[in-house]
Amino acid sequence: MTIDVIVALSKEEIGEKIKAILISNGYNVLAICTYGNELIRAIKQFSPSIVISGYKFKDMNLISIYETIGDECSFLAIVNEPYKSIVQEETDIFCISSPINNTLLVNSLDMIYQSERRVRKLKDKVHNLEEKISERKIIEKAKGIVMRELHMDEEEAFRHIQKNSMDLGMKMVAYSKDILDNYRL
């Protein structure tokens, strides 16, 4: 699987060298940016997995960029020691020091990508669980209406919703929404 990367450094020639290293290691370099605003546009346009960035640009710094668009992708900062502590205090960006060690660069990118994949999977799980909880609340409300209107106990009301939704070829939550819609005051 190819990992999409944007390289953003104030000096284009260093960006080109990093691009060559990345391409030789199987990465797909989507763009090289030298301005912060250019980087923000590129992130919105290309949706990269990772941005490799320096700290200072002619129009803004990495922290300003991260505050604007940090949720869109992961970042790897290549910074000098004085800026490293600033970036680490202000953000959750992973930093490596310059001058760049090729092996450290590639290993850091791999680690960030793996972490990003794990976070994405966890976010998907959380989303699915939130959806199930929401559906369960709808079914429970509908069950309460069925219990009240048809004078059934909890188990009978659940079976009623289950059977009728199956007979109609609907999911229980869709049938429950219909019940709620029909009994709104």
From TrEMBL:
The keyword Coiled coil applies. SMART domains: ANTAR. It comes from the Bacteria. GO terms for molecular function: RNA binding. The keyword Oxidoreductase does not apply. Residues 112-139 form a coiled coil. SUPFAM superfamilies: CheY-like. Keywords: Coiled coil. Residues 119-180 form the ANTAR domain. InterPro entries: ANTAR, CheY-like_superfamily, Sig_transdc_resp-reg_antiterm, WH-like_DNA-bd_sf. This is ANTAR domain-containing protein.
